[in-house]
# Entry
Amino acid sequence: MSTLNLLVAVCTAYVFFLFFVAFVADRLALQGKKAWLRSPLIYTLSLSIYCTAWTFYGAVGSAARNGFEYLTIYLGPTLVMISWWWLLRKLIRIGRTQKITSIADLISSRYGKSSLLAAGVTILAVIGTTPYIALQLQSVTLSFSVFAGQSGGIDPQDKAGLALWLSLGLAVFTVLFGTRNLDAKERHDGVVMAIAVEAVVKLVALLSVGIFVVWGVSGGLTEALARIDASEFGEWHTDRGRWAGLIFLSAAAFLCLPRTFQVLVVENDDESHLRTASWAFPLYLCLISLFVVPIAVVGLDVMPEGSNPDLFVLTVPLALGENGLAMLSFLGGFSSATSMVIVAAIALSTMVSNHIVMPIWLQLRPSGASVSGDVRNAVLMARRISIVGVVMLGYLYYRMSSGGEALASIGLVAFCGLAQVLPAFIGGMFWRGATRLGAIAGLTAGFAIWLYTLYLPSFGVGTILPVSIVENGLFGLVWLKPDALFGISGMDQLMHALLWSMVFNVVSFVAVSLVTFPSPLERLQAAQFVNIFDHSTNAHSWSGGTAQTEDLMVMAQRILGSGEAQALFMRHARRQGARGNLPAPTPDFLEALERELGSSVGAATAHAMVGQITGGMAISVEDLMAVADETAQMLEYSARLKEQSEELSRTALELRNANQKLTRLSIQKDAFLSQISHELRTPMTSIRAFSEILRDTDQMTPDEQSRYASIIHDEAQRLTRLLDDLLDLSVVENGQVNLNLREGTLRDALDRAVSSAAIGEDGVRLEIERTPAKEDILLHTDLDRLSQVFINLIANARKYCDAKSPRLVIRVMQDADRVVVDFQDNGSGIAPEAVDMIFEKFARVSDQKAGGAGLGLAICRQVMTRLGGSVDYVPAARGATFRVVLPYRTALAAQ
Amino acid sequence: MDAACFSPLLALILWMIPLIWPQTGEASVSSATALIYIFLVWAGIIVLTWGLSRLLADEVDDTSDADT
# Structure
């Protein structure tokens, strides 16, 4: 038992060493000496959390059983790491700006902070990780039993006890160093440091065994290669499907495993570390897997038939008497197992406490009375309980599976389960259209198929899945057999499950995303995730104060105007006592600037802008909502302003028009007055003159007397006519005229007009041509007024027609809704420049033929307007043509 | 920058080449050769990524400065 005691002592010492390392690292971190704690090297080494005991021991076993297939487990992560530029950089930036605490948090945060998704991913992670923890416990107990085997072996009771003690120790370590602080960014300096140390131990152990095997046992590199060719896997044999599938699977797992996500994203302190890790971690993986095949080949040679190839790393040195090397190798395996359990427990406990325990606790708690310290303690307690719970769950699983061989294959099964997160994960980072329901659908479909085709069968036929289902399919449907969905049989079980779960996962994720519509918060998060480099600031590069102030200045100038902004900055610079015109961006100054900007653009916008420039802070959704509110208010206000200004300009236009009209009217009135006084004056003058002659002249012949008296009479008559016309016009214009509506035919009206106007006072007769048949149109209108219009038009024709034998044609036309009467003479018509004026008052075509006051047509137009029709001059026709239009309303066809 | 995006693709293609090797008969590739091939690709990719990460260092710093 002495070897075993030694082993326990070494283990204990090693664990205490790890405690010490973690403790010192935490202390240094507290003192702010983070520089070397958080170097790219430590980051790279901590990534080796991916290589667990399963890969430490199992890789050699896998190589011995399946040839080169073990390499795929390392090639996948290598591919992911060298994709750092477009994939990991984005992922880490998202993790930093969104303050992501776990993979469940990432998924939930991307899809509108969905707690359902977070809980789902958490459950998936717990289901996938528990067997993995059990696997670590098994590997440690197995390696113990190898040493014990040399000195009499240990009974199963001791094995179980060992596993229990190990789990308790790990739980204590994790609780101590994993829940020291409740940082918003879940960083654990002590744990990361311990893991980095363990990573070195792992690598050194495996390399030492490898070097010993190649140069110590085989006798050199060439001999080792020859030995490989001579061994039972001397030829290249690989299942092609598994080769490609496993590379994909390991790459997916590297991204999705809670523990690798924890160190890769959550524990990342500086984005530039990724640059180093992008080549250094592939190098680590390369070195870890370098000697696997030689060890396997030598193991197969040296060890007796039937020995467990999973333990070759340990048993080969032991068999060859290298106890020290075996001890180192044991510590390597121990390191792999413990570091995996610690980080997995931290990652899972964060997820379980944040997404399952706390929501339930907050729901159950009576509302109100929430003190922040209260919640903090509750979170810490939840996390501690979760850590113990997760580790114990692993232990229970180990006990239940009784450490059998079945456990060894669970690694890839777990990989496959966690890979179900991948579509929602990658889709969320690169596709804005991905929705919450799509993610839920994809995860559910993938998870269900994985559970049915891989996870449940992995317990062995008849354990959970009844034999009938495995042989005949679900519900007796052959195409639902768990190992041959849709009747496609003969595939490797893992590849079969991977293929179908991924196909259904991706298809449902994409399809549901396409048909559903994301909520506003979801769309916002989608934009933040997909365009992370446009939205985020890189917090680590906190550039100098002046640069920020200059940026602030540029922004302030844009908003406040350059003069005011410069004055503001100068004022503050003087107050701070700074040289030059730029103040340092102190909180006071920033606050003042924010207030100043706030008065221009709104408080929330100002806060967001200043925050963007001074960096460090991500803008929360609430901030953005407030900005949106302010913008909406401003938009509304400006819309109202615009409306008002439009109304004002409309009113101004109306006023301008009215003013123009008034001016025109005033000019018209003046013209009218001067015209009318002239018109009145002319007859009055002659009346006065002739009456004076009659009064003052004594000898006057009766001829002369009567001539003068008749002139006076004529002039008086003309005066009377003029006054009549004026009266008439004013009555019609003011709308005071009473229309005497009655029925009669158009012919009557025309007859009357012709009889009274065709023969003038001078006896000249106007020849008139009519078509009486067409004139039989029954009218309901003021016939007297209508006749007046006709009389006027006929009289005008008689007076102004310059033809030798004047003739007037009166044509009546009738269409659907109006009656048209044309008066066309055979004269030369009206000069085009005069046409515009003829309907104005006192407008006369020529002075020579002056017969009236020039009011006739003006009156006609007013009358026709009253009657609902119109009178116009038709310019195109030959001779002077006036057209009278009567609406049909007043015209009824004669029966 | 683009090279950094394409290098994973190159690595993937190079590591998929073993799939088209003949697996049985006279022409099959010996394990040692296969092992050497895979590890040589691995080493090449590591060196390539190292070189690219050196080249892109300025770029990373530039963008982070521009962001703030």
Summary: The longest helix of chain B spans residues 31-67.
